[in-house]
Amino acid sequence: MKISQLAQSIEPSATLHLNQTAASLKAQGEPVIHLGGGEPLSKSPDSAITGAEQILQTGEIRYGPVDGIAPLKEAIVDYTEQFYGRRVLPDHIIASAGAKQSVMLALQAIVNPGDEVVFCSPYWVSYPDMVRLAGGVPVIVGPQDGLRPRLDDVRDALTPKTKAVILNSPSNPSGLIVSREFVAELVKLCESRGLYLLMDDIYHRLQFDGREPISAYAFSNAAQDDTQLIILNGVSKTYAMTGFRIGWAIANPTVRKAMARIQGHTTSGPCMVSQHAAVGALRGPQDAADQLRSQLERNRDVLVEEFRTIPGAALTPPDATFYCFPDFSAVDPDSMKLAEMILKTVKVVVVPGTAFGLDGHHRISTCGSEAQLREGLARIRWAVSADGPREIEIAGKRFAKL
């Protein structure tokens, strides 16, 4: 049985595969610690649950507008003004089934076959395949300044075929943030070349050490109806609402309408219940989001403390998110091989750096509790160390080094 060339060209999501692997091992009674996940353990805000309950109680869960209900768009308008300093209009907004779909729709709306889309490694796992699904060609810029991109490298990657640039800051997988100067110069560069700039801002409020979100609008000279700046965000991370699947894009009306036409023939629009939940989160008290950021910052500090004692690992402390991307190449430059060893030996899940375009590194998540984080890192320390006992006991089971 044959499948399409397009389907054959797409790799499965490494992170979703690891989620399934961890769940399967847990179901078998294994003492698994999942340090590869991308969703907070905290509960969704009460205001989000109330919003969902109220529409459910009506019993009238119907189709909504393809690009999102008016109350959600109005909440996004106010959110954008508060955190981006720009008053947009509802006509600039489309809500989708998660920020992931918003990115995909934006690419499908602007990319023609053969167009190049530039982004930097380490990158979010889905970018290359999303560009291919849109008919484009991913152009990956390797890191030259630690894990942070350099503007000159982005500029050098641009060709007459370039259609768009994607920037994810704060970054998944590194948890690092580019500077205001970088964003300012990138906005100017894209505007001068007539390129779309997709700002994947899904982690923009989960920043540490008193940092504030950086708004690309602050550096744009284009009117909102003409801009080629596309802002992408959602409720999944900031509000611990991954399962509700609500994201959005803010773009010029031409692009927004194109995205809506595509969405109309795919999902018909985001789930009505989830949209009301998102309104509740955006309009309600923000203490849950603030508490999540504080907890993640504390876990970041634990991470930095524990990594000082892991032999052969080099960590650039994250500025934000619930990820870090340590370099384990001194232990084993083959990140897939090392990730498999860690999982088999001590039942800890980490994501190999190959999934993010940078071998030798691993993405480690700080989503869980402090106790889980310390235990998981202690197991990794034992697994990669040449010293210490050859066997240890974990949750009543004996484990031996390979």
Question: What does this entry look like structurally?
Answer:
By secondary structure, the protein is an alpha/beta fold. It folds into two domains: 5-43 and 287-400, Alpha-Beta Complex (Aspartate Aminotransferase, domain 1); 46-283, Type I PLP-dependent aspartate aminotransferase-like (Major domain) (Aspartate Aminotransferase, domain 2, 3-Layer(aba) Sandwich), CATH 3.40.640. It is built from 13 helices and 14 strands. The protein has helices spanning 5-9, 14-27, 46-58, 70-84, 99-110, 127-133, 151-157, 180-193, 253-264, 272-283, 287-307, 335-346, 370-384; strands at 33-34, 93-96, 116-120, 137-141, 162-168, 196-200, 229-234, 247-250, 323-324, 348-349, 351-352, 362-365, 391-394, 397-400. The strands form four sheets. Strands 2-8-7-6-5-3-4 form a seven-stranded mixed sheet, with helices on both faces. Helix 11 runs parallel beside helix 13 and helix 12 (335-346) packs across helix 13. The two termini are 40 Å apart.
